[in-house]
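tool_call: predict_structure(chain=1)
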Amino acid sequence: MDFNFENELKNKIALVTGGSKGAGKAIADRLFKAGATVIITARNKPQEENENIHFIAADLSKPEGTQKVVDEVIEKFGRLDILINNLGGSETPAGGFAVLSDEDWETSFQTNLLAPVRLDRGFLPGMINRHEGVIIHIASIQAKLPLYDSTLPYAAAKAALVNYSKSLSNEVASKGVRVLTVSPGWIMTTSSVRMMERIAKSTGGTMAEAEKGVMDALGGIPFGRAARPEEVAELVGFLVSPRAAYLTGTEYVIDGGTIPTL
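tool_result:
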């Protein structure tokens, strides 16, 4: 098979949640460069607007937010071919289980698990009717290496997302839809910086100490640094392309060797 890498997603319509910054922005840019019509969602407009990428303002942690996105995409574009469930994050306080409220847990699960579930439910029927489509769930290595002091609800939600993603792939593979999981390790984004700031504030330490603490908690990164958003985007770009047509139901870890086991 011959592929035109630079135009391999021509005529495809892609949605990237949390696509205004960090890895989400890098993924959106990567899919656009491959020829896709790209839609992004976030609660606020991106600081650097790209007139070539369509933006939908929505709070996906709420059911009405996900429904708004589904309705607008179908109304304006008629269908969706590629769904990148990238939205995620942790805003819970550091300090372990004792400082976490029900609201902390519920917020983490709404954002990191239920938002993807609702979007999948909204777009899958159309993909199944056309017998084609790709869904990528962006999880995290914290599904396997939870940081109990700072991101326990996030880690639990991502573990649930990995399990859900595998189950969903088994259900819809025979119906023409591929479902995959990408689990990054530490990515150097603004969210990562905010997490370190919260840890530093909680412990009374410095940012450098917080960064070292995260590295130590992860057991170190053999590659010697956090991932760049563009590196994660390149993996996603491959997985949604025709070159990956036989891949489904698999979790792809991109962590610079952080996880110490197979």
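agent: Helices lie at 22-33, 63-77, 102-130, 152-172, 190-203, 207-217, 229-239. Proceeding to next step.
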